[in-house]
Amino acid sequence: MHQAAAELKRLPLPDAAACAHSERLRERLQQEMVEQGGAISFARFMELALYAPGLGYYSAGSRKFGREGDFVTAPEISPLFSQCLARQIRQVFTMLEGGSILEAGAGSGVMAADLLAELERLGSLPERYLILEVSADLRERQRATLAQRVPGLLERVAWLERLPETPFEGVIVANELLDALPVHRFQVGDSGVQELYVASDGKEFRWVTGEPGSDRLAERFEVVAGRLPAGYRSELAVFAEEWVRTMAEVLRRGLLLFIDYGFPRHEYYHPQRSDGTLMCHYRHRAHSDPLILPGLQDITAHVEFTAVAETLVEAGLELYGYTTQAYFLLANGLEQVLAREMNEEPLIQLELSRQVKLLTLPQEMGELFKVIGAGRGLSGERLDGFRLRDLRGKL
Length: 395
Known about the structure:
8-stranded mixed beta sheet
């Protein structure tokens, strides 16, 4: 059985409306392939599959986040996540004597609501809470979430479709955003590294190989694939590096904080990780075929944090720390926040215990998810989130 057919057989069947939507995006992708001579880079395929206006996964109207969507992020697992993050933000605001928050890709809006509520409790509200969101559908969902949860703070929130033109002071945070930026794929061959492209046979999309799309890309492929065996496949996140560099240029003073799943370079391009890190999510089922269900499933690649760190430093920022999500949350008062939320109701105790396990255990989100922080103008006191364990030496 063809791999795509096998993957589809294991997944829930989309309804007629979803199938029609996916077919429209399939036609859009096939049209682009014809215009480009028969194939497009996987980076372009991923970009259209996720962000094509009105058709891409993040641009259309289906529910993505939470139990009714395709996956659940840490802020939706538990408000404890955002409550701990708020404590890190408060420390930065204290250093800067004020500041704003810029959240890039705010998902359902749950993290924004919980951050604002906790910062109000801590007496450290941001001057403004800016949300950079390209999806009009998600902007409306975020607005509804904030209006329901923190109606009195909604006046502090503003939505942006592009980065602010004036230099920013405060905290820029992105949770599970870098993994959703398009990646180029490559394959190591006997005579060098080839780029993986996507073509269509009229019914299904398929992988094809070709020369890298640019000399710069060819050089980057060779650097990361130098000692890898023939047949090895993986990804290169050029888009993420460019995005990180742009965000660094926006920050005048403060902290840039990325939270995502991934590895440092020596683990990312490990010989045993021979088919890369691509992962797709559809109705809470994970699989590794990004060429099926266009527009209906999320497509992600793990973050290569060494490249992120190098980009931040090259952009003139100071690298303040790199650690696991578990250590970051513990260092920012997870135990104290948990104790505050606990009461004598056994069901609440069990639920909070479950949430903490999901956020911190190594086999859950605790080890795979990392936090990296960099910025300007925060010299002196060490950031709380990196006090317990700083892994910059492993980058």
